[in-house]
């Protein structure tokens, strides 16, 4: 068995096939694995399971099975449908969690948290260091992610303004010519008006 595993890991084509089979295993649990859907209208808050802290006790699934599900591959719970059960069942499921891994979060934060908590393939060198990884503290990672998005948006806006502010010499000359022409038309209009008054 070890020889077979070594053979798979040493050959790049076989290792690629093996990694793809692991990905297929995770995809087999559903096309939207990791992203919860909503039942009914959107609400300001949503439920989120910190899968790093979850111990797979199944208490939440037991109390609110229409909202929570177990990821058998990872051995942890996650939210499948937001508000899939009534509010009383949801409160009981949150209260019954022995490690407090279920959190109420703002609806706007949910997509980023769900994205970051999903295990991502880890870069490795040779046969070492490969596998899956996710941030140890998903809430801190989400804050850093939002901060980076704001910085990129600010940088993009400043670049756009610089593009608008910078003009070629030809553009500057055309602008000056147009400005001069407007001034001349305005002054000739004033002189025409003065002549009309003086002529009367």
Automatic annotation (TrEMBL):
**What Pfam families is this protein classified in?**
Fer4_13
Q: Give the span(s) annotated as Disordered.
A: 151-171
Q: Which domain of life is it from?
A: Eukaryota
The protein's matches in PANTHER family, at most eight in alphabetical order, are given as: CHAPERONE PROTEIN DNAJ C76, CHLOROPLASTIC, OS06G0474800 PROTEIN
Name of the protein in its database record: 4Fe-4S ferredoxin-type domain-containing protein
The record lists the organism as: Actinidia rufa
């Amino acid at each position: 068995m070890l020889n077979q595993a070594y053979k798979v890991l040493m050959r790049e084509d076989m290792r690629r096939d093996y990694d793809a089979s692991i990905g297929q295993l995770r995809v087999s649990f559903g096309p939207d694995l990791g992203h919860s859907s909503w039942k009914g209208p959107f609400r300001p808050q949503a439920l989120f399971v910190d899968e790093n802290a979850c111990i797979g006790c199944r208490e939440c699934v037991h109390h609110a099975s229409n909202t929570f599900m177990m990821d058998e591959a990872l051995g942890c719970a996650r939210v499948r449908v937001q508000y899939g059960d009534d509010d009383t069942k949801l409160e009981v499921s949150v209260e019954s969690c022995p490690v407090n891994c279920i959190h109420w979060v703002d609806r706007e934060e949910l997509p980023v948290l769900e994205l970051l908590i999903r295990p991502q393939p880890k870069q490795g060198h040779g046969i070492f260091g490969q596998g899956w990884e996710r941030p140890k503290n998903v809430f801190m990672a989400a804050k850093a992610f939002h901060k980076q998005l704001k910085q990129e948006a600010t940088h993009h806006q400043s670049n756009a303004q610089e593009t608008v502010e910078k003009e070629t010499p030809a553009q500057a000359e055309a602008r000056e010519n147009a400005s001069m022409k407007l001034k001349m038309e305005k002054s000739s209009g004033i002189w025409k008006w003065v002549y009309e008054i003086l002529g009367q």
